[in-house]
Design a protein that fits this description.
This protein is an alpha/beta fold. It is 55% helix and 15% strand. It is built from ten helices and eight strands. The strands form two sheets. The protein has a five-stranded parallel β-sheet with strand order 2-3-1-4-8, with helices on both faces. The chain has a three-stranded antiparallel β-sheet with strand order 6-5-7. The structure holds adenosine monophosphate (AMP). The site of adenosine monophosphate has 17 residues, from helix 3 and helix 4.
Length: 245
Amino acid sequence: MKNIILLFALAVVVIFGITTYRKSKQEKPLVIIMMGAPGAGKGTQCVELSKSLNLPHISTGDLLRENIRNKTELGNIAKESIDKGLLVPDKIVIDMLFNHINSKAYDKIGYILDGFPRTINQAVTLDQRLGKKYKKIAINLNISEDQLIERITGRLMCKECGTPYHKVSLPPKEEGKCDKCGGELYQRKDDTEEVFKSRLEVYNKDTKPLLEFYENKKELYNIDSNVDKKVVFENIVKTVDKVIK
Ligand code: AMP
């Protein structure tokens, strides 16, 4: 009888433990870091992923461009670096991003980061902010350099809502007009072949080392991005599902 009671108590403890562990795992807000060279498809995939997971998509490039459009002090400083294909100084980007997250109270629900972090310093600062309260996944979109140049130089973007298009692979229904909001489409000043070269150099020097950083923390998942964007998306969703279950 005593043994049966002991066994029963043990079973209750184990079931309670597993349930609490699962609950605590699920309840952590999710932060997804979308990585990849310029032109790898981060923006396009983040837009879809944001809809599918119901998580806000935060692009530091979009936030910076918004500041440039609004001619803010931050925008004026950032413009010079962006037009040359260089990185905007860490402190400016970090403050801008964290202010944005605070103002929208995104900390409670989690988010998808597009274009951040781009340096080890940014990654360390993000880790300090997130601590252990979040489930964090870094997804790297792997793509060959030949494909990058084609994607970048054919890319178009909506002036109003930032939706990305491509002259050949993702044209708008009506030339020059955004399908979603009717806004004017334009080619980013930094999407020329010349600026792209400098962006790629910066990526290889400052951002690529982040792959090892997240690999060492066992937080990195590589996705082949040379294939059709729908397949890329399916693979991202499968990976995210596996990690959060
Ligand atoms: P993107 O739209 O992500 O391609 O970013 C466009 C440009 O904005 C980059 O080439 C950088 O000049 C700047 N930028 C965006 N995110 C960051 C970041 N995390 N750190 C520094 N510069 C950034």
